[in-house]
Amino acid sequence: MYKSDAALRPLLDAFNAQKTEANMWAVMAAVPTLERVTIEPGRQYMVYNKVNPTHFLSANATQGSLYSVENDSAQVFTFEKDSNGNYLLHHVNTGLYAGKTSYSTRPVPAVKASEAIAFSVVSNSEGWSLLTCTQPTSASYATLNNSTSDKVRPFNKTGPSFFLVHLSQSTHHHGYHNAQHF
Description:
By secondary structure, this protein is mainly β. It has helices at 9-17, 21-30; strands spanning 44-49, 55-60, 65-70, 77-81, 87-91, 96-98, 110-111, 119-123, 128-133, 143-146, 152-155, 162-166.
């Protein structure tokens, strides 16, 4: 995900006006120089689902599992980077973390910090992210996804299904700033 395509705009305009190989290579050469947006450890994020965009990722302390809650943008996560470049998903509201994924019939556990498992976060150019457990019980079921019962279960999906939006420092839990999404 790139912070802005402003640097590409004149090159893209030139290519669209005159589709030459030189103009195409100018665009291709500029892409690696664009500023990438990355997750900022310690920053607070809302995480919402692609299939149910009014549902936010949350953790239920009573049930000990991740779930999604409708229309509650006060659900806040931080992403704590590990030494391998993956992240512990920390639910700020409960203090719980995402645990090890199991099988598709079992919700993803919400656990204490000592039991937390890191997740890789891979985003596409539209900002949707794939959250994948790095130590799943079954490699076939490592990706987080919402079930129809609002439980978050592991899935054998390869497409991104969550959108991470960092909270604006000025609005805290009551709003979000979507200029930087992943």
